[in-house]
Design brief:
With 187 residues, the protein is α+β, with helices and mostly antiparallel strands. The protein has nine helices and four strands. Helix content is 59%, strand content 9%. A four-stranded antiparallel beta sheet has the order 2-3-1-4, sandwiched between helices. Strand 2 and strand 3 (35-38) form a beta hairpin. The radius of gyration is 18 Å and the shape is globular.
Length: 187
């Protein structure tokens, strides 16, 4: 049995979910961003208790099929941009379609109708947050960051960064007051 969880966007969220499952004595398989495989049966009472525990941590159980798909889109994008070493060298549209087993047009329309923004804008917002993170860690130069995040050039990265933040990447790195990131669940 699989259950789906909203706002599960980090490794810390995975730990919170695992802890909640263990408290309720529920055996589980994989715990991925937004999705948990439960081994065996789960009573309605356990399901409700899990919902209450997760809600206290800012997470919530998803039951609506469309909400589950939206959460899968978000989590797939977050996982690729924030937690993998390199972005896939294919279009995100192809990647999402293949990964989620839905036509991209359906995914894009559903996402836009539900969230009010396009998948493309969601991807851009997360790429910019990732750029901020990499700039703050100071491990990579702008050329390496643009390659790592699959930008066509440093100029493309810089212009997109400025359009979103109002600052150039170099200026962002120098300004301490702007050197804060947005939590992933708020991007």
């Amino acid at each position: 049995m699989k259950i789906h969880i909203k706002y599960m966007v980090s490794i810390r969220c995975k730990m919170i979910v695992k802890d909640a499952l263990n408290k309720l004595g529920l055996r589980h398989g994989t715990v991925e961003l937004g999705e948990v495989e439960i081994k065996g049966q789960m009573t309605p009472e356990q399901y409700n208790q899990l919902g209450v525990i997760l809600l206290k941590s800012g997470l919530e159980l998803l039951e609506d099929k469309k909400a589950v798909i939206i959460e899968k889109i978000k989590n797939t994008i977050i996982e690729v941009i924030h937690y993998s070493d390199d972005l896939p060298r294919v279009n995100f549209s192809d990647y999402l379609s293949e990964k989620l087993h839905y036509d991209y047009t359906y995914l894009a329309n559903l996402f836009s109708e539900t969230t009010g923004i396009t998948i493309e804008h969601f991807i851009i917002a997360h790429k910019i947050e990732r750029v901020k993170e990499l700039l703050l860690y100071d491990e990579f130069n702008l050329t390496e960051i643009s390659y790592k995040l699959n930008y066509s050039s440093v100029a493309h990265l810089s212009s997109q960064f400025k359009r979103v933040t109002g600052l150039t990447p170099t200026f962002f790195k120098q300004l301490k007051q702007y050197r804060r990131r947005i939590p992933l669940e708020d991007v």
